[in-house]
């Protein structure tokens, strides 16, 4: 009798949780730092409109965090329902609480790849043409939780130079996100900035996607004044994740909605994706195992 009572209680609790998810009235979307807040909110406005129309949410709240950790902590604390993360950001969440969120999708590049690059950019008039020319110079990082703006250059540049970055460069510094980091190099405040990029297409367009592409498209920088001086191995594109407390039904609904978005509204898809992409593809947590291992070994949780 006790066993049946316990089973019934568990079933009721599960139904109650399901009811909460089904009756979701507000949907909370985290937006990573790295680009100025006005542009991020403008890019996601169409996404909020689509979510309201598709699911009948009374409110879709957009939270443009000042840095990557703001979104990470929101997901860990349960105050955000959904966000796009970099691979290193997801690794940080996974190492703190593997059951907090589930990756459902990632972006597919125009060539079909599901990866991108960290690139090093310098001013053309600096005379720096490669990492070999940058010894004793200043290296700018984007954010401590960025994959392409910190973790990958931290671990991969030394494979070229043979020494840790803090020994090879005269100085390394964080510049408050990808856009600010790139502008720091463009304005001569650092000698090299590491940035996220598809590495596809024309350099004069800032390639097809990534922060370099965004600032070129906005007219903020002239690509003719910059040169690429380093490129990483291919990095897994970051995941779009869903808070696990929403349940499997909402994960399935959101996955289907996002997979259809590029066909329904290509302009909106490009706005939230940050450039020219082929679309979304489903992704499993194991896709990020290598980045989780690198983060754990290099900078911890």
Automatic annotation (TrEMBL):
The keyword Signal applies. PANTHER family: PHOSPHONATES-BINDING PERIPLASMIC PROTEIN. One of its GO terms (cellular component) is ATP-binding cassette (ABC) transporter complex. Pfam families: Phosphonate-bd (PF12974). This is Phosphonate ABC transporter substrate-binding protein. Keywords: Signal. InterPro entries: PhnD, Phosphnate-bd. NCBIfam families: 3A0109s03R, PhnD. GO terms for biological process: organic phosphonate transport; transmembrane transport. It comes from Xaviernesmea oryzae. Residues 1-21 form the signal peptide. It comes from the Bacteria. Belongs to the phosphate/phosphite/phosphonate binding protein family.
């Amino acid at each position: 009798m006790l066993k049946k009572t316990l089973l019934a209680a568990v079933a009721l609790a599960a139904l109650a949780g399901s009811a909460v998810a089904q009756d979701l009235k507000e949907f909370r979307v985290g937006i990573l730092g790295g680009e100025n807040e006005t542009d991020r909110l403008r890019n996601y406005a169409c996404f909020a409109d689509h979510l309201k129309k598709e699911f009948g949410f009374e409110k879709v709240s957009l939270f443009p965090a000042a840095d990557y950790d703001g979104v990470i902590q929101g997901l860990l604390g349960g105050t955000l329902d959904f966000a796009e993360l970099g691979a290193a950001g997801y690794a940080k969440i996974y190492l703190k609480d593997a059951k907090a969120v589930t990756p459902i999708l990632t972006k597919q590049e125009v060539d079909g790849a599901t990866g991108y690059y960290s690139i090093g950019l310098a001013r053309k008039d600096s005379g720096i043409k490669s990492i070999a020319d940058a010894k004793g110079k200043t290296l700018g990082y984007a954010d401590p939780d960025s994959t392409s703006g910190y973790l990958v250059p931290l671990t991969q540049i030394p494979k070229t130079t043979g020494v840790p970055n803090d020994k090879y460069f005269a100085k390394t510094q964080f510049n408050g996100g990808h856009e600010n980091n790139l502008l720091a190099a463009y304005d001569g405040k650092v000698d090299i900035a590491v940035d996220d990029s598809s590495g596809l297409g024309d350099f004069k367009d800032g390639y097809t996607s990534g922060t370099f592409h965004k600032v070129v498209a906005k007219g903020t920088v002239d690509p003719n004044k910059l040169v690429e001086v380093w490129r990483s191995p291919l990095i897994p594109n970051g995941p779009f994740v869903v808070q696990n407390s929403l349940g499997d039904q909402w994960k399935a609904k959101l996955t289907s909605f996002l997979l259809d978005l590029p066909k329904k509204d290509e302009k909106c898809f490009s706005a939230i994706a940050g450039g020219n992409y082929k679309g979304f593809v489903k992704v499993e947590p194991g896709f990020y195992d290598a980045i989780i291992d690198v983060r754990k070994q290099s900078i911890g949780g």
